[in-house]
Specification:
Helix content is about 45%, strand content about 15%. The protein is built from 17 helices and 14 strands. It folds into 3 domains: about 200 residues, Rossmann fold (3-Layer(aba) Sandwich), CATH 3.40.50; about 90 residues, N-(1-d-carboxylethyl)-l-norvaline Dehydrogenase, domain 2 (Orthogonal Bundle), CATH 1.10.1040; about 130 residues, 3-Layer(aba) Sandwich (Rossmann fold). The strands form 3 sheets. It has a 6-stranded parallel sheet with strand order 3-2-1-4-5-6, sandwiched between helices. It has a 6-stranded parallel sheet with strand order 11-10-9-12-13-14, covered by helices on one side. It has a two-stranded parallel ribbon with strand order 7-8.
Length: about 425
């Protein structure tokens, strides 16, 4: 099967490499010439465990290609996936301009049947806009060429994206014709052989499923952060509460960990977009409005604990931060709680030293020379008045607490992920959420 994927960001590149691994011939298209040149040279633009090997192997095997020209391969492929960005607008709505631009280029160059699949996260009704854009361009050319539109949202977790793609909980596909369903069935047949679930539905339901899934997970996180806040007031331990409710099989134990707030490229953007969709259709999503407000408040909780500990006298204090990415397994800092913390510390007149196993280059791109970039976990701690644990990387789990205490000016640890055992901290002042 021959496939094009337009957009070589996180979703497009991972999907393209994985489809190639399954045996398809894949063209990955992007308008960013530098990115495409780098990919042709073997330089991978994102950090994702295992992706380098997957890309290099399939390029060498002649199944994976990179290009800036959508038209060049368009009429060699049976389906084209749109995997471009849909950044949030000022009102929270998803910006579909890149999606529509791809659709227009398809209409301008299409010569034979094509299945066009939206893999970008798009609001309900977007596939109809894609169809309209293609039809408009075909009419301008006075061409009557058959095509189908389908929806195939992604559910990849950064840091585990390849396993998620190859061994999915489910594959959701929205179609409106038997021909489109047959093509998508053929594409995902290797997964069906292993009894993975491919769930076919109508296109609007498929588009909604992506948003609803992320909104539900974000809701669980904000709910637990609310409970953690109340636990602190009433003397309960949120860790015990989490274990108690997570043992109920109606609830389960996933996404019940309180923390410094959710971030990344999906949850914040998708919650905002779904709220906007609700407003546009006179169906306000007040629960999600609260989820978003709780999350914004939660991103400030680590700074508040620090300021309260020192009774507001924090100007000139030295802060060390372990973890910059919004979650372990990625260098992604979009909407990361660490950024909120760093900005508040700098605004308060503190100096900041940071360490992250993979996100240092991304941090320097975002923050420049406003902070100090440490060489390892201990280098970040020299003469620090506080250590913030923000991202739960494995290498932070079992440090030398005696060494930490000797390096810090004040042995204060504020744990944003609740992973440490207070009894093992050997005299270090320990504050955590909940």
């Amino acid at each position: 099967m021959n496939i094009s994927i337009v957009g070589t960001g996180y979703v497009g590149l991972v999907s393209g490499a994985c489809f190639a691994e399954l045996g398809a011939k894949v063209w990955c298209i992007d308008t960013n010439k530098q990115k495409i040149d780098n990919l042709k040279s073997g330089v991978i633009p994102i950090y994702e465990p295992g992706l380098d090997d997957l890309v290099h192997r399939n390029v060498k095997a002649g199944r994976l290609f990179f290009s800036t020209d959508l038209a060049d391969s368009l009429n060699e492929v049976e389906m084209l996936f749109i995997a471009v960005g849909t950044p949030p607008g000022e009102d929270g709505s998803a910006d579909l301009s890149y999606v529509i631009d791809v659709a227009e280029k398809i209409g301008q160059n299409l010569e034979k049947y094509l299945l066009v699949v939206t893999k970008s996260t798009v609001p309900v009704g977007s596939s109809r806009l894609v169809r309209n854009a293609i039809e408009t361009e075909l009419k301008k050319r006075d061409r009557n060429i058959e095509f189908d539109v389908a929806s195939n949202p992604e559910f990849l977790k950064e840091g585990a994206a390849i396993d998620d793609f190859m061994k999915p909980d489910r594959v959701v596909v929205g179609v409106e014709s038997e021909r489109a369903k047959e093509l998508m069935t053929h594409l995902y047949s290797p997964m069906m052989l292993n009894n993975f679930r491919v769930i076919f539905m109508d296109i609007p339901s498929s588009e909604m499923t992506k948003y609803a899934a992320n909104a539900m997970l974000a809701t669980r996180i904000s709910f637990m952060n609310e409970i953690a806040s109340l636990c602190e007031k009433v003397g309960a331990d949120v860790t015990m509460v989490r274990k108690g409710i997570g043992s109920d099989n109606r609830i389960g134990n996933k996404f019940l960990y309180p923390g410094a707030g959710y971030g990344g490229s999906c949850f914040p953007k998708d919650v905002k977009a779904l709220i906007r969709t609700g407003k546009d259709h006179n169906s306000p999503l007040t629960l999600l409005e609260s989820v978003e407000a709780i999350n914004e408040r939660q991103k400030k909780v680590l700074f508040t604990k620090f300021s309260n500990h020192y009774r507001g006298e924090i100007k000139g204090k030295r802060a060390a931060i372990w973890g910059l990415s919004y979650k372990p397994g990625t260098d992604d800092m979009r909407e990361a709680p660490s950024l909120t913390l760093i900005n508040k510390l700098l605004d308060a007149g503190c100096t900041v030293s940071v360490y992250d196993p993979v996100a240092m280059e991304e941090a320097e791109r975002r923050l420049g020379n406003t902070i100090r970039y440490a060489s390892d976990i201990y280098d970040a701690l020299r003469d620090a008045d506080v250590l913030f644990h923000v991202t739960e990387w494995q290498e932070f789990r079992m440090p030398d607490w005696q060494k930490i205490r000797s390096l810090m000016k004040t042995p204060l640890l504020i744990d944003g992920r609740g992973v440490f055992n207070k009894t093992a901290l050997e005299g270090i002042i320990y504050l955590r959420i909940g």
